[in-house]
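## retry 2 of 3
previous attempt timed out at serialization; input unchanged, resubmitting
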Amino acid sequence: MSQPKRALLTGITGQDGSYLAELLLEKGYEVHGLIRRTSTFNTDRIDDIYEDPHKEGARLFLYYGDLTDGTMLRRILEQVQPHEVYNLGAQSHVRVSFDSPEYTVDTVGMGTLRLLEAIRDYQQRTSLEVRFYQAGSSEMFGKVQEIPQKETTPFYPRSPYACAKVYAHWQTVNYRESYDLFACNGILFNHESPRRGETFVTRKITRAVARIVAGQQKKIYLGNLDAKRDWGYAKDYVKAMWLMLQQDQPDDYVVATGETHSIKEFLDIAFQHVNLDWQNYVEFDSRYLRPAEVELLIGDPAKAREKLGWEPTVTFDQLVKLMVEADLDAVGVQHNGAASLDIATLRREMLHLAPQG
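## retry succeeded, writing output
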């Protein structure tokens, strides 16, 4: 019986990492994930697939580590001997990168370099091929130089996060061309899901909708509502990551839907899904504005469609409603969408029944 493929994932506990781990396990892989040490066990997103590593037949293994520690990365490569490495770990919040620029650059930019160098050294010593996926970002396009953005569009980053991603992108290209590494960049446009972190605007909105319906929140505070993004479903996008590493030759790909929508449009769909008007609940707060804003992102996924056979399966409207439904479930409000439950009335009833004083 042949041994299963082994994959090493940084950022396995994040939105993308958890979906990718599930996909790889479904495909028969042995999955090894890097997690950062915290005072609480931060594995909520992978609880459904986590196994006791002592269990016979276990195929998911976790290791404490960090992209800032090159020695640890080399040690884990030696231990795991992966066939594929997916670098998804990062300080991934754009607004936070303005507050923590050094840390962001160290993890996102230098962290990628440390991992590439560890792979190069491991591959040279063992003659075993390691295929590498680097998680790029549409934020690298920043102040866009053409519409839509594709693989050849010049980068114009507008945040410490985006600058670090550009550095990581070109290091990946450099190691591919200099050392013949099978290294791919996935330039992923915004991708969301019910597993999206609660500080990101899409999840912040859908969570607020659910909490407003449940009477647990009255307002939501946001920054620029006119920013436009190309939003897709994270579960679709991790399949594109895997497909990149199954090709005969390494390359770089834009992964996107080819549509752009504003935050106002996201608000419209999310609040209308529960029969509410977002303008009654949204307040402006300048703290959520970026020093340098990115106004418009829209990707051209033609290359991924033609070479990888990849297509998005979830529309923007479906994505927003999917996230709202998940957050309604999380606060204990059942809503099947089709029944057109009058949630505004339900909310008023819940507030009326709430204890006073």
